[in-house]
UniProtKB/TrEMBL annotation:
Known catalytic reactions: Release of an N-terminal amino acid, Xaa-|-Yaa- from a peptide, amide or arylamide. Xaa is preferably Ala, but may be most amino acids including Pro (slow action). When a terminal hydrophobic residue is followed by a prolyl residue, the two may be released as an intact Xaa-Pro dipeptide
Family per record: Belongs to the peptidase M1 family.
SUPFAM superfamilies, A to Z: Leukotriene A4 hydrolase N-terminal domain, Metalloproteases ('zincins'), catalytic domain
Entry EC no(s): 3.4.11.2
Top-level EC class: hydrolase
Molecular-function GO terms, alphabetical: alanyl aminopeptidase activity; metallopeptidase activity; zinc ion binding
Source domain of life: Bacteria
Species in which this protein is naturally found: Chitinasiproducens palmae
The protein's required cofactors: Zn(2+)
Domain Peptidase M1 membrane alanine aminopeptidase: 228-452
Record's protein name: Aminopeptidase N
Domain Peptidase M1 alanyl aminopeptidase Ig-like fold: from-to ranges: 457-566
Peptidase M1 alanyl aminopeptidase C-terminal domain ranges (all copies): 570-893
Length: 894
């Protein structure tokens, strides 16, 4: 196989495996440099497979020691990462003994060492780095695992399932034996060994059975585990309540590790987490960190049913488990946030969660869908599966699942889930199986809905409206299409789009809506229209005769992952921002208003002109600012301008410098025009009493810190004083870090002093030092150029390229989180990017490929930047060796 053309794997080529592996008995002799793995498998040839079909097990970087077939040394050839065994029988026991070098494993896939302890990561194809196996998700086996290791260095020995035996061995070693009663694919295997301690709790689930819950961490981190444990308990309760899904093992363990490529991993009964999503306390974690821990703990726990009990037939079906599980964790977080206050607070908390998710979807997934890596929720092909853990598979996949709920309601969705588990528990299945369960449980035909899985690109829905005041009729014409320049050859047929709408009267009240063929009793204020054709007209009747033209509220709560094209004028947007009963669309109106203003300003600046912010916009935002009836968390969202990344994506040719200048100017103008209001908000939103990371308190802090940020845009010294005081007096990381951010923006010696103080205070807290690096990498160019700061920090003793969190905190924060500085005209950012992609490529291809993706949209940028990007991409293409990076860069250049 040539290095230039990596093998591409196609969904249509799926074939079931010729052999089944029914049981796996693994024995590990753990040693950091030479771990010996003895793997005994009971293997059965599948019916109808010719007897002379060789068994081919996959392996990567393994040293083969011995192979025995039914206890007798066997012939086996070991080439190209495949172990071929001529078994010649229908059922047999195969033992393969290999060894590997975990301490030398910097890819963090397979078995590796982190801070002296052993961990594994097997999804998607890491199990083959541990032993030879049919390393594919449709091979489900039950596992028995024995771990043997030095007792002093590795007192704790964990694997999936239940502990059945443990004890001493000669030479200061000891062992533990674990049995997982549930058949599972190899990607869910895990082991952990080392010096760890656990926060433990025993709970009873609904049927009364006791369950042992553990959160394992390094000893110094034990005080930071309470929130993860509470989140785990809440997740268990929620899945029982909402879906009737119980915890099926006697014990459930979460383990934190400081070196991890992703967020966390749902290994059966032994979830392994990036420390970032486990550890949290008031002093070191922000409100966002607390919320993320809750969401990720929930996500991995929910995988126990959606992913583990029912798994994926092949990796093209990844969204079957990820889209569904992201949807479930979103719903969980929304319910948790809503559980605190009164009904109005609850509704607002749910809207805020939706806003956060949609903001992220639009910023990242819409861009992915418009670029060279565009792929459907269920991809058709890949070179490296690690590159397909994408926002399309995860977040767009979650939107697709959400649409079932929008179409069938919560109860209908639950019926579909029940049927899915009834049919497929214990199986490895496809996205089609899930869709079929939803259809059958609801007596619906979801054939057209399949297109959401097979068509790439973001659909656009163009809306036209016509109001016949004399007849009290309102017509809505919806047209769906994909953008002309969609970069995908998947079909572009009309989708089934649930399109939620409302109509507001002149006073801003919802009008009851009834379609022309419906009885009066059908009227509701939000209607979910089922758009199935390329173009369709819906007519609402029975509206007040001779009333003023209603204002449409389109795609309420973002009922489908599409872009709505409708010619709102500024006045209509300001009106919706002030009145829409749908909180999501209220926010949306503000974002549209701000986006349009910012794009106009950026265009003007890009052409060398002077930009001005319209007073309509200044006033509309002032109204939100002054409206104390709005929940603080919602107000914070409404007053947060669209990100620079999102804005650049909306330009015909992205100009990050102009976007940054426009956004800075708008922030400055909003700060100055409403200085007194910002000041009042800052004063009025102190949180009294002890720190609690609840949605309500977090919302108050967020709004107050947003106010501080706006005040920091003003030229006077007052904000610096506020920020300094807040920095010093803060009793929690949210307030301290926000104050540090405000000081850093203001600059000068106060900023330098605070940054130094912050480092000294948290020198021994890696997750906080990550924040310290990130904050500096995300500063706009000022007296010093940020690229110079980043290069200097690169040589800081605390910087470590091998640790993914640290690499992300400095390198990704600069390359992806600081567009204006990164896209400097002299291409200095691109040179840095190319160096770092190549350095990471040699260490950790998965992380390198993520960084490589930062430049995949290079064709979108103004011509003056394109050449520099192309040159950097070519440099990486010439030097990169991993399939991961080569696939990404190859597609970007192709
Ligand atoms: N399956 C993990 C999750 O979604 C993500 C993951 C993928 C982690 C690959 C590690 C490696 O939660
Ligand atoms: Zn997941």
């Amino acid at each position: 196989m040539s290095d230039n053309a990596p093998t591409v794997i196609h969904r249509r080529d799926y074939m079931p495996p010729p052999y089944r592996i029914e049981t796996v008995d693994l024995h590990f002799d753990l040693d950091p440099h030479r771990t010996v793995v003895r793997n005994t498998m009971r293997i059965v040839r599948r019916d109808g497979v010719p007897a002379d079909t060789p068994l081919e097990l996959l392996g990567e970087g393994l040293q083969l020691e011995a192979v025995t077939l039914d206890g007798v040394a066997a012939e086996a050839s070991d080439a190209d990462g495949r172990l071929r065994v001529a078994a010649g029988r229908a059922s047999f026991e195969l033992t393969v003994t290999t060894h590997c070098d975990p301490a030398a494993n910097s890819s963090l896939m397979g078995l590796y060492v982190s801070n002296g302890n052993f961990f594994t990561q097997c999804e998607a194809e890491g199990f083959r780095k541990i032993t030879y196996f049919l390393d594919r998700p449709d091979v489900m086996a039950t596992y028995t695992v024995t771990l043997a290791a030095d007792k002093e260095a590795y007192p704790v020995l964990l694997s999936n399932g239940n502990l059945v035996e443990s004890g001493p061995l000669p030479d200061g070693r000891h062992y533990a034996k674990w049995v997982d009663p549930f058949a599972k694919p190899s990607y869910l295997f895990a082991l952990v060994a080392g010096k760890l301690v656990a926060l433990e709790e025993t709970i009873q689930i609904a049927d009364g059975t006791p369950k042992l819950l553990q959160v394992w961490v390094e000893p110094q981190d034990l005080p930071k585990t309470r929130h993860a444990m509470d989140s785990l308990i809440a997740s268990i309760r929620w899945d029982e309540r909402r879906y009737g899904l119980p915890l099926d093992l006697d014990r459930f363990m979460i383990v934190a590790v400081g070196d991890f490529n992703m967020g966390a991993m749902e290994n059966k009964g032994l979830n392994i987490f990036n420390t970032k999503y486990v550890l949290a306390d008031q002093q070191t974690a922000t409100d966002t960190d607390f919320a993320n821990v809750e969401a990720v703990v929930g996500h991995e726990y929910f995988h126990n049913w959606t992913g583990n009990r029912v798994t994926c037939r092949d990796w093209f079906q990844l969204s079957l488990k990820e889209g569904l599980t992201v949807f479930r964790d979103q719903e969980f977080s929304a319910d948790m946030a809503a559980g605190e206050g009164d009904a109005a607070q609850a509704a607002s908390a749910v809207a805020v969660k939706r806003i956060e998710d949609v903001r992220m979807l639009r910023q990242t997934q819409f861009a992915e869908d418009a670029g060279p890596m565009a792929h459907p929720v269920r991809p058709e092909s890949y070179a490296e599966i690690n590159n397909f853990y994408t926002v399309t598979v995860y977040e767009k996949g979650a939107e697709v699942v959400r649409m079932y709920q929008t179409l069938f309601g919560r109860d209908g969705f639950r019926r579909g889930m029940d049927l899915y588990f009834q049919r497929h528990d214990g199986q490895a299945v496809t996205c089609d199986d899930f869709r079929q369960a939803m259809a059958d449980a609801n007596g619906a035909d979801l054939a057209q809905f399949e297109r959401w899985y097979s068509q790439a690109g973001t659909p656009r829905v163009a809306v036209e409206t016509a109001y016949d005041a004399a007849a009290g009729r309102y017509r809505l014409t919806l047209r769906q299409h994909y953008a002309e320049d969609r970069r995908s050859d998947t079909p572009a047929d009309p989708l089934l789009i649930p399109f939620a709408v409302g109509l507001l009267d002149a006073a801003g009240r919802d009008l009851p809506l009834r379609l022309n063929d419906e009885p009066e009793s059908a009227a509701a204020t939000t209607r979910v229209l089922a758009l199935t054709g390329a173009e369709q007209t819906f007519e609402f009747v029975g509206l007040p005769i001779d009333g003023a033209t209603p204002t449409p509220s389109l795609l309420r709560h973002f009922s489908a992952p599409v872009i709505v094209d409708y010619e709102y004028d500024d006045a209509a947007l300001a009106f919706l921002l002030a009145h829409d009963s749908d909180a999501f669309n209220r926010w949306e109106a503000g974002q549209r208003l701000a986006t349009r203003a910012l794009l106009e300003m950026a265009q003007t600046l890009s052409a060398g002109g002077q930009a001005r912010l319209s007073e309509t916009v200044v006033d509309a935002f002032g109204k939100v600012l002054a409206d104390d009836t709005l929940a603080p968390a919602f107000r914070e969202q409404a007053l947060t301008l669209p990100s620079e990344t999102f804005l650049a994506e909306q330009m015909i040719e992205a100009d990050p410098g102009a976007v940054h200048a426009a956004r800075t100017q708008m922030r400055g103008r909003l700060a100055e025009a409403h200085a007194a209001l910002w000041q009042r908000i800052y004063e009025a939103h102190r949180t009294d009493g002890p720190y609690r990371p609840t949605a309500v308190d977090a919302g108050r802090r967020a709004l107050r810190n947003l106010a501080l940020g706006y005040l920091a845009e003003l030229p006077d010294a007052a904000a610096a004083t506020l920020a300094e005081t807040q920095y010093r007096e803060a009793d929690n990381m949210t307030d301290r870090f926000s104050a540090l951010g405000a000081l850093a923006r203001i600059g000068g010696t106060a900023a330098q002093d605070a940054l130094q103080d912050f480092y000294r205070r948290f020198e021994h807290e890696p997750l906080v030092i990550d924040k310290w690096f990130a904050l500096q990498a995300m500063q706009p160019d000022g007296a010093a150029r940020t690229i110079d700061t980043v290069r200097r920090l690169f040589t800081h003793p605390a910087f470590n390229l091998k640790n993914p969190n640290r690499a992300r905190s400095l390198i990704f924060s600069f390359c992806a989180g600081n567009p204006a500085a990164f896209h400097a005209a002299d291409a200095s950012g691109y040179a840095f990017w190319a160096e770092q992609v190549l350095a990471l490529d040699a260490l950790n291809p998965q992380v390198a490929a993520r960084l490589a993706r930062v430049l995949e949209r290079w064709r979108k940028y103004v011509p003056t930047l394109r050449d520099g990007m192309e040159a950097a991409l070519q440099r990486v293409m010439a030097g990169a060796r991993s399939r991961d990076v080569r696939e990404v860069v190859g597609k970007a250049l192709g």
